[in-house]
Amino acid sequence: MNHPPLKTRRFRLLLLVPGVIAIAAIAVSMNLQGQAVAAQNAKKKSHASSLVQFNKDGELVRPTGYRKWTYVGTPVTPNDMNGGNAPFPEFHSVYMSPDAFDHYENTGDFPDGTVIVKELVSVGDKEATSGIGYFMGEFVGLEVSMKDKTRYKDKPGNWAYFSFGHKYPLKDHAKAQPAASCNDCHDGSADDDFVFTQYYPVLRAAKNSTKSN
Ligand code: HEC
Fold it and tell me: I need a surface site. Which of 5, 93, 118, 135 has the fewest CB within 10 A?
């Protein structure tokens, strides 16, 4: 056989080395990128399910930790402005799942998996050193809405509504309410995709920041 001289063979090998290293580096970086994307996707998919849980009957387990979510607003409909008999005479402190808030801020849409909590807080004192007014008393109730295209594919807007009670102790789990009890009024009167953003300045500001970007 007619081998090239040893020197030339070594030289060819040397030429190959950087190419092999470059290919290996690209492969490693592609794999790392792939892993990062997979991790992001897993995070996206699981964000709602990691914040809320369902029992074996498919009922929503009362969420916890929501006071650390994104706070969006506090409507208040006190008795003494409603003929002494408001249906919800308390403050309604509204929180939204943080990932859904980020998505809303970026796109102006409520993503699949959005969870919104409305915590009812009684009217306590009506006078403080700052003046006459309505001051928060105690936690008294909890309602939740959740958007899920798969789980609630038959609900108007894919939103499901839950009531954990209007008096402590709250229920530990709740089933989705019939659309006529909750979805219909939200559908007819709320400004943005069944959500009363007209009363949540934080969400309006977030949506405006989307438009100006
Ligand atoms: C007659 C109309 C009406 C009905 C019926 C209704 N809601 Fe609402 N809901 C409102 C209004 C108005 C707000 C915002 C202002 C406020 O909290 O008073 C609101 C806000 C909420 C919020 C905060 C998120 C959002 O969409 O703005 C939740 C959660 C909620 N309601 C749950 C429920 C549940 C659960 C039911 C059914 C048991 C229900 N609602 C039925 C009018 C209604």
Answer: 5
Residues 69, 41 share a domain: no
The pLDDT of residue 31 is above 70: no
Task: Give the pair of three-digit tokens for residue 52.
Answer: 């809320």
For residue 75, the enclosing domain spans 60-212
CATH code for the domain of 77:
3.50.70.20
53 lines ligand 1 (CB under 6 A): no
**Overall average pLDDT of the 62-73 stretch:** 98
Contact in structure between 167 and 156 (CB atoms under 8 Å): no
Asked whether residue 137 is assigned to any structural domain, the reply reads yes
Q: Which atom of ligand 1 is nearest to the CA of 144?
A: 29
Ligand 1 atom closest to 163 (CA) = 35
What is the amino acid identity at position 121? Answer: V
pLDDT at position 208 is 86
120 touches ligand 1 (CB under 6 Å): no
